[in-house]
Amino acid sequence: AKYQKNVEAYHNKNIVPNCIRSESYMITFEIEEEKFPLFGKKYQLKFASDHSLVHFPSLIRLAREAGLEYVEIQNLTEFYDDNRPQFAGMMNLVDPRGRLLPRSYDVLGLYTTFIFQKPDPDVVPPIATP
Predict the structure, then answer these.
(1) Cα-only R_g, the chain
(2) Which H helix or E strand runs over 105?
(3) 93: which of 7, 85, 110, 123 lies 20 to 30 Å off by Cα?
(4) Are strands 43-47 and 25-29 parallel, antiparallel or unpaired?
(5) Cα–Cα distance for residue pair 83/80, rounded to 1 Å
């Protein structure tokens, strides 16, 4: 989405940018074209500090193998907005009204929260019908 907005901003200048950047990261796309193919757009992501990317379907599989159930996945900015009263005082990423600063919003948007839970052993799962 950030790349598409960047492309649209340069549209009238007949320039197709091949990257987006902030003070925390830079994403460079391999091919300079205005539209993404349906599948297979290659890119390189560089963080200003060390981070790790997680393949979420693999994480769900590993959690299931460890006896945990997947509950929810949510972008961190959406999670913050949904839980603002609870977290506003803990973070120095907000303005005086508790809203995320633009640079904070940009960085937090790269992260995802996820919730797994240990199943309740007293609850009998419903019988699946074919």
Answers:
(1) 20
(2) helix 102-108
(3) 7
(4) antiparallel
(5) 5
Structure tokens at 6: 């960047």
The tokens for 118 are 């240990």
Range of the domain at 72: 55-120
Residues in Cβ contact with 115 at an 8 Å cutoff, skipping those fewer than 6 apart:
70, 71, 72, 73
Number of structural domains (the chain) is 2
To 10 degrees, the CA torsion angle through 80, 24, 41, 114?
-30
Q: Does the pLDDT of residue 130 top 60, yes or no?
A: no
Cβ–Cβ under 8 Å, residues 17 and 33: no
Q: What percent of the chain has pLDDT over 70?
A: 78
| Cα 45 to Cα 20: distance, rounded to the nearest angstrom | 10
pLDDT digits (tens, 9 = 90+) for 29-68: 776 555 666 666 777 878 777 767 788 889 999 999 999 9
Say if residue 71 is in the same domain as residue 112. yes
Residues 6+ apart with CB under 8 A from 44: 27, 28, 30
